[in-house]
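Please, structure for the following, as tokens.
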Amino acid sequence: MPQQPTRPATAPVDATPRRQTETTHDANPVDFDTAQWLEPTRLDPSIRLDLRYATTNNFVKQKMYDCGRCFLRPDVARAVVAAHRFLQKKGYGLKMYDCYRPRPIQWKLWEKVPDPRYVADPRKGSMHNRGMAVDLTIIDSLGNELNMGTEFDYFGIEAYHSYGDHPDEVTDNRVLLLETMEAQNFRPTSTEWWHYSYKPRTYPIADWLWPCPQIPENEQK
């Protein structure tokens, strides 16, 4: 494996301040800077979340986030909601695996797997670190994931968009996801059927770590 780099001593590229001056129709309080970030589930709670890096069900088999929340840049979040609502008209919806990934978490992933084939070099940053990328899939009306041929974060040619030996069902499902996301100005990554990046504009790399809701003492285990 390549030698692990030393963390830069420079200040964060984007240390977004938190503020609590805005409200939404969501029952939860706004605990983030709404000029910089938005949770798509605040616009449409029917979007499902299965945020793998907030669990051990991921390729490093370790929990990387203190809690699972899906943040994106506001225009990116609105584009995800538009894609979800398009799919709803067909009896489907979106499930999110990963959204904005703070660069400190990118460093943790890189330290475990310092291989740019699988993890973006945190010195360069990634679209996830900018709040511009999503990992997601399609679910049916019962919440079942459509067959995409491989699991999320499967690192093999079967996950490539160009892989041609999947059954027609898998191909059709992937095309539906591709066309839905491209219609909202997302572009695919050739080696990962689940990864899409928003392309109309760019944002800086961010180090901001979202707050985790406090669990009442009587509910703590």
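The beta strands are 48-49, 93-98, 133-139, 186-189, 192-198. The chain has one domain: 40-216.
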